[in-house]
Each structure stands twice: as C-alpha cells, then as structure tokens.
Hints:
Blueprint: H1 3-25, H2 34-57, H3 63-88, H4 98-115, E1 125-132, E2 135-141, H5 144-170, H6 173-184, H7 187-197, H8 209-226, H9 235-246, E3 252-255, E4 261-264, H10 266-272, E5 289-291, E6 299-304, E7 307-319, E8 325-334, H11 336-373, H12 377-408, E9 415-418, H13 419-433, E10 438-442, E11 448-451, H14 453-469, E12 476-482, H15 486-489, E13 506-513, H16 520-523, H17 539-550, E14 554-560, E15 563-571
Parallel strand pairs: 10-12
Antiparallel strand pairs: 1-2, 3-4, 3-8, 5-6, 6-7, 7-8, 9-11, 12-13, 13-15, 14-15
Helix pairs in contact: 1-2, 1-8, 2-3, 2-8, 3-4, 3-5, 5-6, 6-8, 7-8, 11-12, 13-14, 14-17
Amino acid sequence: MQFGLVVAWTSVVVGAANLGLLAYLRRLPERPGLTWFQGVIAAQTLFCAAYGVGLLLGDSPLRTPLLVLYWLAAIWIGVAYLGFALVYTGRARYVQSRPFQAIVALQSLGSLVVVTYPFHEFGPTNLELVEYGGVLVLEYTHSAFVVFEFLAVVSFATLGVVLLIDTVVSYGPLYRKHALAIAVTPLPPTVAFLAWLLELGPLYPLNLTAIAFFPHLVLDLYALFGEDMFEFPPATRRRAERAAVEDLGNPVVVVDPDDRIVRLNAAAVDALGVDETAVLATDLARHLEPVDDGFDGDHVRIPDDTGARTYARTRNPLDDGAGGVVGYTVVLQDVTAERRREQRVGVLNRVLRHNLRNDLTVVLGNVNAAAEASDDPAVADLLETAADQTRELSALGERAREVEATMSASVEADAVVDAHAVLEAVRDDVMRRHPAATVDVDVPRDCRVTADPDVLRVVFENLVENGVVHDDADPRVSVAVSNRGDEIAGDPDGDGTVPSAADGGTVTFEITDSGPGIPDHELDVLDARESSLEHGSGLGLFVVNWGVSTLGGDVAFDATDDGTRVLVTLPRA
C-alpha cells in the first residue's frame, strides 16, 4: 500500500476513535472544563475524518466541502483547547472576558473567510489536485490572512499548554500526572501542522497532522481513564484558594515586605472604606490605628460611621518556596462587640466583687454582734446559721475571684511540674482553712507531669476542698497515684492491657473522700451546661473540668452514697 493511502486510512481511523471518545464524554456528568474538552475532541474528529476521507475520494466534487470542514475544524481546535484549559484550571471567569471574546470574534471572522473563499482573495487560492504517494492531494496557496489565522490557532493551543503546565508546577501530585498528560497532547499535532503550513519536510504536500492526533488521543485516554482527570479537576483547588481570600467574611489584605497593599478582598474594601484600585501600593498602616488597652493580642482600630471598630490583626508570612518572605497576609477579625462586652463585664465584676466583699464583712460583723448580744438560744442558732451562710458566700466570692484570675491568665501547659510538691501545698492550705479535716497525699516524690502549675493547683484544690466541705462528720480526703487508669485511658494498643502510671505516658491521680457524693445536677457542668450552676453550686467542678481539659488530660467521676472517687489523668513529663 502506498504511503498516501496509509495517511488517508490512518486519519479516518483516528477520526473514528475520537468520535468514540466523544460519545463516551457525552455520558459523563458535568465537570469543570468537560464541555470545552468535548469541543476539542469534536473538532479533532472533524479534522481527521474530513482530511482522510478527502484523500480517499480523489477528484470527487465532495473534496471542496470536505476541505472547508477541515479548515473550520482547524480554526476552532485552538479556541476549544484554550477554553478547556481556562475552565479546567479554575480560570472560568476569563472565558467571559473581553480578550477571550475577541479571540472568538477573530476565529468567527476566519470561519467566514473560509466559507466564502471563492469570492475573495483572503482565503486559500489556486486550488489544484496533485498526485502524491498514491493519492490526490489538494494543493493551494495560503494567503497572509490564512497563515496569520493558523498561527493564531497554534498560539491559543500553546497558551492552553502553559496554563496546564502551571497547574503541574503549582498544585502538587494530585493533579500532576493528568494535567501533564493533557498539556503534552497538543505538541505532536502542532509540530506536524506547522511543518505542513510552512511547507517543511520531505512528505509535503501531505498533511500529517491527522496522524499526529493519534498520540494526542492516547494521552487523552491515559488522563481520562488512568488518572481520572475529571474526578479531580484543579479548578477545585484554584477556586478554593481564591475563595479563601475573596469570599472570606473577614477582611484580608495582602501586603509586600514593606507593608504596601498589593491585594485585598471585598470585605477589606468595605472595612477600610477605600477604593480598591486607589488603595493599591499604599502603606497599610495609613488605614489602621494601633490599639493598646491591656487586652491580649494585636489589635487595631478602623474609623467608621459609628466612630471606630476594633479588629484583631493576624499576620502570616508568604513564603517564596526557598525560605524567603515575599509578603504577608493580614487577616482582620472584628472584635468590637466582644471587646465592649469584656470591658463591661470586667467593670461589673470588679464593682460587684468589691462591694460583695465589703458588704458581707459588715453583715458578718453585725450578725456576730447580734449573736453575742442575744440571750435567746433560738435566736442565737438563727444568727449562727446566718453567719455560716455569710462566710460561705464570702468564700464563694473569693473562689470566683481566684477562678477568674486563673482562667483569664495565659496558660503554659507544657511546663514540667512536681505534682508531689503541688499536692502537699494544696493539702497544707486546705487543712489550714479546715483544721478538722484530714488530707492524705500518697504520691511519689519524683512524680512529674506536663502542666501549668497554677491551673494544676486550682484543679487539685477544688477537688480536695470539695471532699472536705461536704462531709460534716469526719472529713477525710486521700490523693494517690492510681494504676486504674483504664477507666479513662481505655486500651490504646488493643492488646487487652492498659498503661499504668509507671508506663511513662500518663499519670492517673485518684482523689477519694468520705462525703455524701456529688449530686447529679452538679455533675451536669461536665457537659458544659453552665446553666446548671444554680446559685454557684458546681462552680468547683466546672473549674476542674476546664482545667483538666486545658492541660490535655481527662477526668472521670464515680459518686456514690459512700463518697466520691475522681480519676484525673494528665500527661507525664
């Protein structure tokens, strides 16, 4: 078989294969870029079939209509591929842009020139059939417009390749293989098409572009079936990255190393009250007022119609990939209402605590004086009850003050703490306040945990004192290191054994008392139902739950009529 016939039949077969691929693509659910990719395959099908069938038809009158179809397919392949690359890589908005519309207008003009070629000199001219390789090949003269048009097609395809290569470089292994495959696909037909257009190579005037679409097809099939190109389109990641800035409700400003604005989202434009274009390249500090009013963190103020709003500012460096910093993202979170609420609560808390302490001291003094002055035993009992309640209320106020100080302080939960020393100090403090109580500490002297010392002390103090104050008969509390951590730790290795306190991972402390047990409504605070703190009841347990969680530990309660057992598991240092 002569070489021309090989080219003809191969072109027909490649066109048929592309047609089969197109039929398969039409059954797929909608995915980013799929419609444009179908356009690419449709144009390839028409190009290959029209050229191959035309060679087989010889001097048939159908040669000219087939040539027109072949030209039209060549004109639109590049546009379809560029549109696919834009949408597939998450740049779909550019398909609606004026430059892309200009490209479509140019190719529409090229299509009109091809269809009307007999009536002007802008299209192919001097058409004639010449015998080459056993087939009749149409030869013609390419006008300057046709050459420009076809070079534009190559340029559009090349731009699409660049966009896909950018995806390969930027987006990592999830997209790398299939993006690289479809980026390489245009290269074989582009080289063959340029060789024919510029009349290069020993086989001219045969156009080998249709044959070169075979490796194009193989790479498409690999990307489609081997790498699931439409299951994980890079448009998802690009859109997510854009949404992370553009659609975020918080103001986000991107600045260069000198703090000059290079980008900002819509929320930042509204917050700063600026024109998006005019503010570019200006110093961000011009638009922000620093705030230093004793609150933790970096805060700034932005004037607005209501006076000014306060924002918590977070700066994150932009790495250039080689260890250098090319700029920063500045995220602003509106904390105006939160700051005002904290200030009001702080003032109210200080006033109430001060007045409560002073007034309760006066009440207690008067109650004691009244008890001493009264000769009636019944009245004395009533006054003693009032005095006891007043002292408890005063103690609750002091505990609330201590809890507030601990919870509002900065927690350093990674310090190495001597648990034995902390527990002995807690024992001494509790027994000093409650001389009738007995507190036993059975903890090794080398027992150390990773915790914040102040938080750890508050946790143990609340647990020990809770056992003391709720036992009116003979208050006794014991604290020991427990080997029964399985009630909290479970079986992490799945081997039927549970790490004991000596295994080095955690330490479990067991606090037991002889009191009446903890009521269920007080244990409700462990579910963070602060509404269960009726008249201050359960405050200590709330603090215990918060403290242990803050230290990265676990706490479990076992309350019965005979007393309470609490297991506190903390990281061993």
